[in-house]
Amino acid sequence: MKVYLAFVAFFLPLFLFSCTSTKNGLNDYSDEKNEVTVEEIVSIEENITKSEESIFIEEIEEIQKEPTESELFIQKIENINIKCVSSPSVVTKNKNFSSPYDFIISDNEDNPVSKINITVTYPSVKKDDILFSSVELISDENGKISFIPPKPTFACISTVTVYPTPINQDKEVLQVVNQKKVEVTWKVRSDAINKGAVLFIWDFNEKNKPVNNSYEILSEFRKRGMTMVGNAPVNDSEYIGRSLDFLYKENYEIIEASYGYLICGTVKFVKSVESCEEGYLCSLTSQIEALDMKNGNKVFSKSFNHEAIGKNWNDCVSKCKTELAQMIVEEIFYGM
What we know:
This protein is α+β, with helices and mostly antiparallel strands. It has helices at about 1-25, 40-65, 70-75, 170-180, 190-195, 215-225, 245-255, 315-335; strands at about 80-85, 90, 100-105, 115-125, 130-140, 145, 155-165, 180-190, 195-205, 210-215, 230, 260-270, 275, 280-290, 300-310.
């Protein structure tokens, strides 16, 4: 505003002098339209002053404006951090968690932050997909929150997700919340580890003929600490291709529900072993299904494919069967 006033003060006398000189020296052009009065100059000055004052007032009003709810929330959480300090080991389905998920909320200098609302989401229902539930907790005076999930009713590998509870669904709020999100592994294994299982799983040769029960899959179950596992009592190759209901009834007549599950399937060559640049390539495929021995209900079904390279036929086939067995047992342990 001072700049505009100085501009007017400096150029006004020159402007008036120029107008007077023009009037006196060029009488032919002395029309009143060429004259600028003092009143007009003052009006210009007042307009400039009002314009500057308006801008200044707007700037002050912007500075003094109250922050929004979203802005206050973002200011509150943008300098906090969430850290998982402990989590449960592997849990068996239908068993309670023996320890909680523990988190610490701190600022950028590692000072604990209390009274922060935190949302925790966890797997709660399994249908076609895994569905999640959530709980809201508040950090205590030590910045700590502890979460013990309900008893899990299904096996899976998933995540527990922790984040500041958003104050609303504004884009800026959700963006900051997402930056603070922390995920921790959730591992619940099948109760087959305790209930046991019998296997009706057959290996096929390259000519697509059954040759023997899968030793690699049986061995992998035992490596993982499953002691109640073995080949099914009704386990002749002539039963390959029979319905699951038939296999269930035949085996149930002998063992009833003394073992928790009947696991059936095949391991076949996709094609004959072939040479490649690195040696020899083995390609296997497997279809695995499992039944609950209490009621005969199907509780697992999945197809698997795997390839492995070895220095010779035996090496690549052995490697492929072992790695495929690891994949199958992992899926059964955390998907049945």
